[in-house]
Design brief:
402 residues, 2 domains, eight-stranded mixed β-sheet
């Protein structure tokens, strides 16, 4: 069970302590077959372990048991928005993450540059992670494509990723992805599920065909796939719901996008532990909630590289001293989902959580890991319940009832 309706919103207070939500993307893992330890349990994490020793631990389920979450829904849950009710497309998050002026009614799409062979079958879904400068050059090329009756914007994001926005009347979102999530097969066509989607599907298929013609000279990025086709709609902001002045410290566009979508101020890009700590310190007096995001525990897991994810986890551990140095009233550390290197993808497995405040009940755990958190005093909860938990620990949630 979790919060329902607007109950937590009605109880939130404008006064109380300062909160930091520190997220290691894809934090959770699976045991290595030789050691029986996950990436997190293998990594040397003295700072996280010290936090655990002083705090409370548990596990959260990003969406629902057995359901593998995308990054957007997983973060919406962490921010206290039921991700089933507030289903935000990846394209919207991608466009907002690069600072694009996305308006209500715009349809946004996340683009992956990909490699296809002579038969049109995908050989690399990420085009070898082309350099940013190649992505920028190809994006400028595809931005010249024209479609009837709509404005078109094609913008580079990072490496193999880009964003496409269509603006005009009669557009629809929520169409299928064209990435088949496999190699050796061709990209899928965009298909309409209802008559209202037919025009948008036709426009996008036309765009894909024109893009393919313009990319034939490329050794790697000679095709594109479409993901997260979505229309932007308005949702209640973080400030409206929780009465917090919130800021986001993140390096990757998608996470900057989801933070901006809920109304957080998105601070300048900070990806390294040192940059994250500096950004936090410089802005500490201006906000009472900080979302801090570390990416590389996810990307190394998606690459299927156990040792690299261990190293990324150890780097994430070095973020903790700088975060604790500002002395937040509440510090919650977790991941948005699990990305086990054994699966090389997101998974449904519960994610470790640790919280530190003056009002915690310490448990017996002294290390931060999946097995230890299984016995933690917080138990197991949905990600959407973490926001009320942080608010309560910060003295920002009123009593319910007389």
């Amino acid at each position: 069970m979790g919060w329902t309706g607007q109950l937590p919103d009605a109880l939130t207070s404008e006064t109380g302590g300062k909160i930091i939500l520190l997220v290691a993307d894809g934090l959770g893992g699976l045991p290595h077959p030789e050691t029986g330890l996950t990436e997190l349990e293998t990594a040397k994490t003295p700072n996280l372990d010290a936090l655990v020793t002083e705090g409370s631990t548990g596990l959260h389920v990003p969406i629902a048991p057995g359901l593998t979450p995308g990054s957007g829904p997983a973060h919406m849950g962490l921010f206290g928005y039921d991700p089933v009710e507030y289903l935000i497309g990846r394209g919207v998050l991608e466009a907002l993450g690069i600072g694009f002026d996305l308006r209500e009614g715009d349809v946004a799409v996340r683009i992956n540059f990909a490699t296809v062979d002579a038969d049109g079958n995908i050989t690399d879904r990420r085009a070898g992670r082309i350099p940013n400068e190649v992505c920028e050059e190809l994006s400028a090329r595809l931005d010249t494509i024209e479609l009837p009756g709509v404005e078109l914007f094609f913008r580079p994001v990072k490496e193999h990723r880009a964003a496409l926005v269509l603006r005009g009347d009669g557009l629809a979102g929520d169409l299928n992805d064209t990435d088949p999530q496999a190699t050796g097969v061709p990209p899928l066509p965009v298909t309409a599920q209802c008559p209202e989607e037919e025009r948008t599907a036709e426009l996008l298929n036309t765009f894909v065909a024109k893009a393919r013609e313009m990319l034939t000279d490329q050794p790697k990025a000679n095709a594109i796939t479409l993901r997260g086709i979505a229309e932007r709609t308005r949702i209640p902001t973080f400030g409206e719901r929780f009465k917090l002045r919130a800021a986001a410290i993140a390096g990757y566009p998608m996470y900057r996008g989801v933070a901006g979508l809920v109304g957080m101020d998105v601070l300048p890009i900070a990806s390294t532990p040192e940059a994250m700590a500096t950004m936090l310190k410089e802005n500490w007096n201006d906000y009472n909630f900080f979302f801090m995001h570390y990416k590389y525990t996810d990307s190394t897991g998606e690459d299927g590289n156990f040792d690299a994810k261990v190293k990324a986890t150890e780097e994430f551990d070095t973020v903790v001293p700088g975060v604790r140095a500002v002395n937040p009233d509440v510090l919650l550390v977790t991941g948005d989902h699990s990305t086990p290197s054994a699966l090389a993808s997101h998974s449904w497995h519960p994610v470790p959580v640790a919280i530190l405040s003056a009002a915690i009940r310490r448990d017996a755990n002294t290390t931060f890991g999946e097995t230890a958190c299984l016995t933690g005093s917080l138990g197991r909860m949905r990600a959407v319940d973490l926001m009320p938990l942080m608010l309560s620990h910060a003295g920002r949630l009123a009593k319910f009832g007389a």
